Amino acid sequence: AVGPVAVASLMTASALVPLAVAGTEQYVTLAIQLAFLSGVLYLILGFLRMGFLAHLLSHPVVSGFISGSAILIAIGQIKHILGVEIAHLNVVETIIALWNALPQTNIATLIIGVSTIVFLYMAKTLLPFCLCKLGIEKKPANMVSKLAPMLIVIVSIILVTELDLHVNNGVNIVGYVPSGIPDIHYSLPTFSMLESLWLPALLISIVGFVESVSVGQSLAIKRQQKINLNRELYGLGAANVASAFSGGYPVTGGFSRSVVNFSAGANTPLAGVICAALMMLVLIGFTDSFSILPQAVLSGTIIVAVLGLADFSTLKDTWKFDKADSVAFMLTFFGLIALGVEKGILIGVIFSLGSYFWRASHPHIAVVGRISGTEHFRNIERHQVETNSKVLALRVDESLFFGNVQEVEDIIQAKIASNPALTDVLLLMSAVNRIDSTALMVLNDINRSLNHSNKRLHLAEVKGPVLDTLKHTDFFKALTGKCFLSGHQAYNELTRL
What we know:
By secondary structure, this protein is of the alpha/beta class. The protein contains 22 helices and 8 strands. The chain has helices spanning about 5-15, 25-45, 60-80, 90-100, 105-125, 125-135, 140-145, 150-165, 165-170, 190-220, 230-245, 255-265, 270-285, 295-305, 315-320, 325-340, 340-360, 405-420, 435-450, 465-470, 475, 485-495; strands spanning about 1-5, 250-255, 365-370, 375-380, 390-395, 425-430, 455-460, 485. The strands form 2 sheets. A 6-stranded mixed beta sheet has the order 4-3-5-6-7-8. A two-stranded antiparallel sheet has the order 1-2. Helix 6 packs antiparallel against helix 7. It starts with a strand and ends with a helix.
């Protein structure tokens, strides 16, 4: 279900606040241009078949981003729960301003807001359980609980209307809601707009794509279906361009609406068409009904929704399994809160990619020997194995590239220096999927160095695609040893010599 979502809304606001005053014509124009640029970027990425970008953000980064966004959104809504007015500030300044504004709290607004949060939370957690206890099936019970926001909206509108709370008690209401179907029009962005909006548009596109794909894949798995990542890019691109032409801001696939859609039994995009048709009916004749809706109800609904998206269990799980992933979560989370949405997610991505590069540049390289009576080779530090003083067998557990091949050479040189009797070096390459040009040059240097010392370099268990590439190189032609099919074959031949 594609539409406005909390994360994209937050990123849109974060991008536009420095450029224009919220609610002004310039602000609206920039929001429309942001949707158009996002749509164009989606379409370009789809044309270039860049669907793999969905994997650019690791799960801890996405989780830290969503959790941080949830906290930011929730803090930004507290002023409406209290019924106070504060400027748009950073998180720390907002918290301080809220604390200073506590004496001006509107009690009636606070009661409405807190009641909304408590009711929605209870409806979300306890109502399905209670309904099931009364004999109602699980699926209808869950559907009833999802109607709780609609119920609280209707009840609050009736309550404010009957008691004139907006007049007698100063409860802030939504106010005038424009009616009618949006006009279809658009004007191209200026160069200054492009200069200011291209980076936010790119980040919104990437994050929106990742969120949409995450939702789509999680729901597809439940029905044993698959999604086409590049087709998703086209779909999101078309939706954002359409949003721009109808006066909207960036949209993407939303989690909560998609889950409700899925739970209701929707099977095709026709469900979205029906939803749009119903929304058009509301725009044509029912917008006046929402003018008396208390802002505290909207804020309470938003707070319950976004806090439900926060996922701190990921931090706990990754801390036990992989400290680097947990650091990526925390950097994204705190970076987003302290520095803003774009910088927060960039910090998380840069750290994740840096962590991956660091690991790739420090590959696990094991000196191996043969387990007695078998054809298997294992790390000499972990297993009781057979070795030969004349043969050094190394297993490289990573593809060889410019960042890690030097470590292979250093180990070989160190082993040669400590073992003068060494005559043959055997590289087991079962885990090597690729060798870049720098790695090939270093291998060539290793081969020449061993040759000058009257020693030989051998390869074993080289994968087909890697071997196909090596066969046409000078290194392979000048190889002082042989290329064996298996480590067992190589070890037998070398130890007989």
